[in-house]
Design a protein that fits this description.
Helix 2 packs parallel to helix 10 and helix 3 crosses helix 9. Helix 6 links the parallel strand 4 and strand 5. The protein folds into two domains: 241 residues, Aspartate Aminotransferase, domain 2 (3-Layer(aba) Sandwich); 133 residues, Alpha-Beta Complex (Aspartate Aminotransferase, domain 1), CATH 3.90.1150.10. The chain is of the alpha/beta class. The longest helix has 20 residues. It has a seven-stranded mixed sheet with strand order 1-7-6-5-4-2-3, sandwiched between helices. The chain has a five-stranded mixed sheet with strand order 8-9-12-11-10.
Length: 390
């Protein structure tokens, strides 16, 4: 007998939520897995609002809606939504909350694509910004303007793994009537749920940990019902909808999010400790290391320190290149958060759009290596790193 669409009367533990929340009930024709609704349009049912019309570009097929519910559940939000990429999520959210003449406080050292969006695109529309240190409240106060409308940060920065003063950001934004936005891609809702701390909007590149299999591109946003409705209206005009088959793959990937991230938390912590003690390694960036990257904030807020770390070797660029060539298991490729380990030099890939001067200003050297730890054996990964460092 098909179960009705009633809330599960249990405790709402994340282990259960990641599998069952957001699923369509009763099951579609009894299918345990939600089918792919590969239909561009749906039968009109009297909808009065344009955004409610059932049409694939309006991001509201059953696949889209199920994902939105699941993401909202995991982030403890009123509503959630998916879109075609992480940059679609970031750009649409910012273009929803900001207007010409507005000013944004933005964390220095953001992901390169976000940096370019603020520096080279939104500025064309009269939206200004200032970069700020994530832990320097006095700088936030100095750069605050009457036209400042929002504060944008990342839970863990890319690629230096810095954890900002997140409670301070929330308090500062509330005291000054600013919207607070946070990219939670690196931490994931397994390790940190920003809305519970008081952030207004949480964003993800679903390409990364939410999907976890390096086979799709997608983005997600969660927050209040009102804000998600406004972002949806803008997304429908900008056209950044997610394809239903991509929805299906993301939906499937999210069900293993918890087991993947917990393994990656443990593995990355052991690898960071190994590298930190190695004589050929100059510096390791990982929030789980005491005295590094805002460790005290991460320890007080996070359920785990994540699967991402960065490090620099004691030698120069030639030594770095030789080390990466000697690795067997980690694949030399951009992106992150998948089941396979990946390594990359951000200066040549993710942050290549920044000038050398801009990279130096935020601490990204030509020899910095970013390591996305997969779900392989931790001991095998350490063995591989050790032989490449020899």
């Amino acid at each position: 007998m098909a179960k009705q669409d009633d809330a599960f009367p249990g405790k709402g533990e994340i282990e259960t939520s990641v599998v069952h929340d957001g699923e369509k009930r009763p099951l579609v024709e009894g299918a345990v897995t939600l089918p792919i609704f590969q239909s561009s349009t749906f039968e009109y049912a009297g909808e009065e609002n344009y955004d409610d019309l059932r049409y694939i570009r309006l991001n509201n097929t059953p696949n889209h809606l199920a994902l939105g519910r699941k993401i909202a559940s995991l982030e403890k939000a009123e509503a959630g939504m998916v879109m075609s990429s992480g940059m679609a999520a970031i750009s649409t959210a910012l273009m929803t909350v900001l207007s010409p003449g507005d000013h944004l406080l933005a964390l220095a050292g953001l992901y390169g694509g976000t940096h370019d969006l603020l520096s080279n695109y939104l500025s064309r529309f009269g939206i200004d910004h200032d970069w700020v240190d994530g832990r320097d409240v006095s700088e936030w106060e100095r750069k605050l303007r009457p036209e400042t409308k929002a504060f944008y940060v990342e839970s863990i920065t890319n690629p230096l793994m810095q954890v900002p003063d997140l409670p301070g950001v929330v308090g500062f934004a509330a005291d000054n009537q600013l919207l607070s936005l946070i990219d939670n891609t690196f931490a994931t809702p397994v390790n940190f749920r920003p809305l519970e701390l008081g952030f207004d909007l949480v964003l993800h590149s679903a390409t990364k940990y939410l999907n976890g299999h390096s086979d799709i591109v997608g983005g997600a946003v969660a927050g209040s019902g009102r804000m998600i409705k406004n972002i949806t209206s803008n997304l429908n005009l900008l056209g950044g909808s997610m394809d239903p088959h991509t929805c299906f793959l993301l939906h499937r990937g999210m069900k293993t999010l918890l087991v993947r991230v917990r393994h990656q938390n443990t593995s990355a912590a052991k690898i960071a400790e190994f590298l930190d003690q190695h004589s050929s390694v100059k510096r390791v960036y990982y929030p789980g290391l005491v005295g590094c990257c805002g460790h005290s904030t991460a320890k007080s807020l996070f359920g785990g320190y994540g699967g991402m770390l960065s490090f620099e070797l004691s030698g120069g660029e030639e030594d770095t290149n030789r080390f990466m060539e000697r690795l067997h298991l980690p694949i030399l490729a951009p992106s992150l958060g998948g089941v396979e380990s990946l390594v990359v030099c951000p200066a040549k890939t993710t942050h290549a759009g920044l000038s050398t001067r801009e990279r130096e200003a935020i601490g990204i050297s030509e020899t910095l290596i970013r390591f996305s730890v997969g779900i392989e054996s931790t001991s095998d990964l350490i063995f591989d790193l050790e032989q490449a460092l020899a």
